[in-house]
Specification:
This protein is of the alpha/beta class. It has 3 domains: about 190 residues, Urocanase fold (3-Layer(aba) Sandwich), CATH 3.40.1770.10; about 200 residues, Urocanase like domains (Rossmann fold); about 210 residues, Urocanase fold (3-Layer(aba) Sandwich). The protein has 22 helices and 17 strands. α7 packs across α15.
Length: about 675
């Protein structure tokens, strides 16, 4: 069994560790199909071997070539550590600075088998959200972090550690970029080749930025989405007896079961893969499991009638579920579903992100690598069937939204009837959850703020929970009503968080907060570390899916209507601004959520160690991290953002934002254009 010290000592070369291959006891990523030419295979092998001295090439080359041909990528399984991957307490990491130790903790949490979707392929969530491209990179990064001083910065190129470079103590300790590809070459097919060559990587969002906190990270956002969907579509946030149907129980989508029950509704979630379904059931997040459609219908009726919360996992294809619910409606006239969505990983539709109804799970895994063209056609036919059933149920009164997973985008590409008559480039028959539900919340400056207690002690998490709730309760007395509702939702969430047992992996918490709340919570936690009320530093972060972190025309910025929806200045400016305002590490990614080439997003980590310097960094960086996006949304014409940034300027006299003047008389435009 390897140790933390051994993992941090660099690549084990003398002797090489034994090649254990793939562990049959953990889930594995689908086989990739990069379609490399013979010369490209040669290049991929050459690129992989450059991590090792020539004396080992004769041993490693054949096994790397086998991995490439068998799995579509060189993961270097031989170098996968035998040490149990998890977030060890910060003091156990051998290093010179606690900032580096905090990053080590976060990296190992992303690869914890209890957290990661495909741990041996270094995939945290989303089917292909990589932490690194191979295990040599992991070991080199851990070694560099153990050697790092406070006058060095680790530079990461798409999973590859370029090295430690001299910098200032005030500089970030790591700068991460993932998938930064010249725009004309940012296609899905090009990505598959570049990943196989080991030169680029899809970091999703918090996978490649080392900030994932397990499915809890999205439980809260999903709960708020369902709650606010009830308010918007059903006229009430009392969801007892209301039925929500969706799909996916994997890395991110696994949150749906827990979130729906917290929101109080009846939820049925389809999942074709038994492993994540069983995992969520064992965690207690999924109350019941069945592979019978008859049982699904029976339990929906019973829970709907009794108005009792339910999370029911259907082990089967969601298309079958939608078609059966439609059949019940056509037979009886009873509409069994109120709210509907989908969380399959359709950013990755042809490589395990979506399983077509015509094939079994195992058949699909085989077809996607042996006959990719036929598999693509079958996926598109399945999407057309799924949309056909959803459309009929929506016509009958169900409310459906896109969850920002490229579902409607890929359905449109498949020829399904999802177009919106007279709609813009990012509008479909159904809204995205940002357009109708969460967009206004972002424009108020609210987004997914999170923290990790690096001691690993649940008592520290309980203290920080109480700090956050107390801060929000004090602040909620002096805010406008629309802001107060968001505060109240989050106070309720944080007060009940411990009861819902959502910690998986690191001792972490998430809540939605606005700019003022984030700064106040961070400063209060930093003071608690200084006073010894929290026993070790705390890492603050956020999901990239936030006010300012992501330019994504089909998700985070889908409610931007001034023509800038396909521009990415906001996310890039955020990354740069966070870096020089005090972040411990920053990341900028191509892709994330909706898919490669569709999104630019970024994130950060900031270590609160109880020092005055940490407080200064948190105040400066967090204010920018929210105001940037609110200012952009204000300039695009969002009235919530206008009011929010106006209030922020009144509170901070150093902030001066260019404010838009709306056109009040449309006839001015008509006359000018006619002339």
């Amino acid at each position: 069994m390897s140790t933390l010290k051994e993992i941090c000592s660099g690549l084990p070369l003398n002797p090489l560790p034994p090649n254990q291959g793939r562990d049959p006891n953990v889930p594995h990523a689908p086989i990739r199909t990069p379609n490399l030419t013979a010369e490209e295979e040669r290049l991929a092998l050459r690129n992989a071997l450059r991590y090792f001295p020539p004396s080992h090439h004769a041993t490693l080359a054949p096994e790397f070539a086998q991995e490439l041909r068998q799995y579509g990528h060189i993961y270097m399984y031989r170098f996968c550590p035998t040490l149990r991957m998890r977030a060890y307490p910060i003091d156990q990491y051998p290093c010179h600075t606690r900032q580096a130790a905090a990053m080590m903790l976060m990296i190992m949490n992303n690869l914890d088998p209890a957290v990661a979707q495909f741990p041996q392929e270094l995939v945290t969530y989303g089917g292909n959200g990589q932490v690194f491209s191979n295990w040599a990179q992991f070991r080199l990064v851990m070694h560099y972090l153990s050697e790092m001083t406070e006058e060095q910065t680790l530079v990461m190129y798409s999973g590859h550690p370029m090295g430690l470079f001299p910098s200032l103590p005030s500089s970030p300790r790591a700068i991460i970029t993932n998938g930064m590809v010249i725009p004309n070459y940012s296609s899905r097919d090009q990505y598959e080749k570049m990943f196989a060559l080991g030169v680029s990587m899809y970091g999703q969002m918090t996978a490649g930025s080392y900030c994932y906190i397990g499915p809890q990270g999205i439980v809260h956002g999903t709960m708020l989405t369902v709650l606010n969907a009830g308010r918007r579509y059903l006229g009430s946030d009392d969801l007892r007896g209301r039925v929500f149907v969706t799909s996916g129980l994997g890395g991110m989508s696994g949150a749906q079961a827990k979130a729906a029950v917290i929101a109080g509704c009846v939820s049925v979630i389809a999942e074709v893969d038994e492993a994540p379904l069983r995992k969520r059931h064992e965690q207690g997040w999924l109350m019941e499991v069945t592979s019978s459609l008859d049982q699904c219908i029976k339990r929906i009726r019973e829970a709907k009638s009794a108005k009792t919360p339910l999370s029911l996992g259907y082990h089967g294809n969601v298309v079958d579920l939608w078609e059966r619910i439609l059949l019940e409606f056509e037979r009886t006239g009873e509409l069994l579903v109120d709210l509907g969505s989908d969380q399959t990983s359709l950013h990755n539709p042809y490589n395990g992100g979506y399983y077509p109804v015509q094939l079994s799970f195992h058949q699909a895994n085989q077809f996607m690598s042996t006959d990719p063209d036929r598999f693509r056609n079958v996926v598109q036919e399945s999407l057309r069937r799924q949309i056909k059933a959803i459309n009929k149920l929506a016509d009958a009164g169900m409310h459906f939204w896109d969850y920002g997973n490229a579902f409607l985008l890929e359905a449109q590409r498949a020829g399904a009837e999802v177009q919106k008559v007279g709609g813009g480039a990012t509008e479909f028959r159904y809204p995205s959850y940002v357009q109708h539900i969460m967009g206004d919340i972002f424009s108020l400056g609210f987004g997914p703020f999170r923290w990790v207690c690096t001691s690993g002690d649940p008592r520290d998490l309980a203290v920080t929970d109480n700090i956050a709730a107390t801060v929000l309760e004090e602040m909620s007395a002096n805010v406008p009503d629309r802001v107060k509702q968001q505060y109240n939702d989050n106070i309720r969430w944080i007060r009940e968080a411990g009861k819902h047992k959502m910690v998986v992996g690191s001792q972490a918490r998430i809540l939605y907060s606005d700019q003022k709340g984030r700064v106040s919570i961070a400063l209060a936690i930093n003071q608690a570390v200084a006073d010894g009320n929290v026993s070790a530093p705390v890492v603050i972060s956020r999901d990239h899916h936030d006010v300012s972190g992501t330019d994504s025309p089909f998700r985070e910025t889908s409610n931007v209507y001034d023509g800038s929806v396909f521009c990415a200045d906001m996310a890039v400016q955020n990354f740069v601004g966070d870096a020089f305002r005090g972040a411990t590490w920053v990341a900028l990614h191509n892709g994330g959520g909706v898919g490669w080439g569709e999104v630019i997003n970024g994130g950060f980590g900031l270590v609160l160690d109880g020092s005055d310097e940490a407080a200064k960094r948190a105040r400066l960086m967090l204010n920018w991290d929210v105001s940037n996006g609110v200012a952009r949304r204000c300039w695009s014409g969002n009235s919530n953002a206008y009011e929010t940034i106006q209030r922020t300027m009144e509170e901070n006299r150093q902030l001066h934002v260019t404010m838009p003047f709306p056109v009040q008389d449309e006839h001015v435009l008509d006359r000018a254009l006619q002339g």
